Amino acid sequence: MKNDFLLHAIGQTKEDYIMEAQQLRDGVKKPRQTRRKPALWKGVLIAAIISLMTVTAYAADFLNIQSLTSGTLHFSSSSYKKAEKAMKIAGFQMDLKEQFGNGYTFDNIRVEDVDGRDEQNRKVLTYKETSVTYRNQSGYRLYLHAYQKQEEITQSDHAAVQSRVIGGVTATYHLDHYKFVPADYQLTEADKLWGQQPGNFISYGSDLVEKTDVSFVCWEKEGICYSIMDMTAKETPDTLFSMAAELMGN
Amino acid sequence: MDDEKIIDLYWSRSENAISETSRKYGRYCYSIAYHILSNNEDAEECVSDTYLSAWNAMPPGRPAVLSAFLGRITRQLSIDRWRSRSREKRGGGEIALALDELTEIVGDSQSPETAMMEKDLVFSLNRYLDTLSQTERSVFLCRYWYLDSISEIAEKTGFTTSKIASMLFRMRGRLKKQLMKEGLL
Fold first, then answer.
1. How far apart are CA A97 and CA B62, in angstroms?
2. pLDDT digit string (tens) for chain B, length 185 residues
3. Which of A58, A144, A230, B69 could form a disulfide with A157, with the two C-beta atoms 3.0–4.6 Å apart?
């Protein structure tokens, strides 16, 4: 075997790994830590809110989880037909729809690790999460996340704005307020007070100071935790609840 | 435009397929080609040839990850071009260095270079990559898939060049061990 035969074979390795390496080349950094314990985001550490994948998980004290970040990407596809494969890789079945009654349609599905890290940035917990992106006709996106219930993680650490019982399952609507600030940003007294309010989070690492609201409906069914997230809180609670009901088959 | 729609354009034989591909992935493909060829004109030609190959491959092809599909084509076309250029005049660049490094793995192996052998090799490489941490894997693929220089990888990771060089050295050693164990060397 010659070296260029090996070079050629390396060219055929897994697509996910190729794209994972491309992320490094693009200079995409993973968020390391958020100042306030429950403030959690994953994805790209930039101000653009579209990169915010999920929020408001809360790690229990005994594991001393300070942040949750995206880990290894195991699977990614923009074909609904690959959803079964995604679930097999994730290790659990979830409720899923190709299209909702309100027009939101399947766009892509990903399975990746979520890594819980302690103060020294050591990985103390890893679990798989399936994320599905839906788009409506105007291109607006909503995100469905699902993972097997983890004793150490809850979906929100503060009171819901609304809750509804759908087919015996309680779904709750939350509205969180995020302020993204640069890594070297000095918090003002007003910022500190703002950050202490339930549902308000300050996350470090963006290029500019930006504020945004994130809404989501979450529920647990048959050991699987679900959330449907709206990254700019544009959709009404009714819309998110109705999508949750459709997913549950009601 | 999302990837599924771009693929649909190929399937419907719409000429917009190429312009949309170029808009979304032109820079990505160019960066792969340029790293291998270190020449603007050659890199641009390889990117154009990538679109042509994609046009010929879809249909019947329907890639699951369009970016990786295009990247693979660009990489192979660029390596082929580098080889034909090297025949005329020994080409330098990162690919020559990377090939030298890969020689450490293959040594004087006399194993055959058949399609079946390549298939087994790819399976083995994927198994090997599975065992690496995400950082190690990305460093390995930046070097031997994207053919980035060690200093570029150091800059992206925040590690020193000597750390990257030693990571690569260790990874080559482990890969060699695995390939030997699996009878591929």
1. 22
2. 889 999 999 988 887 888 889 889 998 999 899 888 888 888 988 998 899 889 888 988 889 889 999 999 999 999 999 888 776 555 567 788 888 899 988 877 777 777 778 888 999 999 999 999 888 999 999 999 999 989 889 888 888 888 899 999 999 999 999 999 888 88
3. A58
Q: What is the pLDDT of residues A48-62, one digit of tens each?
A: 222 233 333 333 345
Please, which residues bridge with residue A244 across strands? Answer: none
Label the pairing between strands A210-221 and A169-181: antiparallel
A124 neighbors A71 (Cβ within 8 angstroms): no
Q: Would you call B122 and A1 a contact, using CB atoms and an 8 Å cutoff?
A: no
Amino acid at site B156: K
* Contact (Cβ atoms closer than 8 angstroms) between residue A115 and residue A123: yes
Tens digits of residue pLDDT in B124-170: 999 999 999 888 999 999 999 999 989 889 888 888 888 899 999 99
DSSP A47: S
The pTM of this model reads 0.49
Residue B185 to residue A15, Cβ atoms within 8 A: no
CA distances from A173 to A1, A156, A160, B93 (A): 60, 10, 6, 56
| β-pairing verdict for A169-181 and A200-204 | parallel
For B129, the closest of A13, A23, A108 (CB atoms) is A13
Closest CA to B64 of B75, B53, B56, B72: B72
Residue B16 has, within 13 A of its CA and on its CB side, a CA count of: 8
The answer for A 92-151 residues in CB contact with B (under 8 A) is: 107-108, 135
Cβ of A77 within 8 Å of Cβ of B99? The answer is: no
**Closest to B62 in 3D by CA, of B17, B13, B11:** B11
Q: What are phi and psi of B63, to 5 degrees?
A: -60, 145
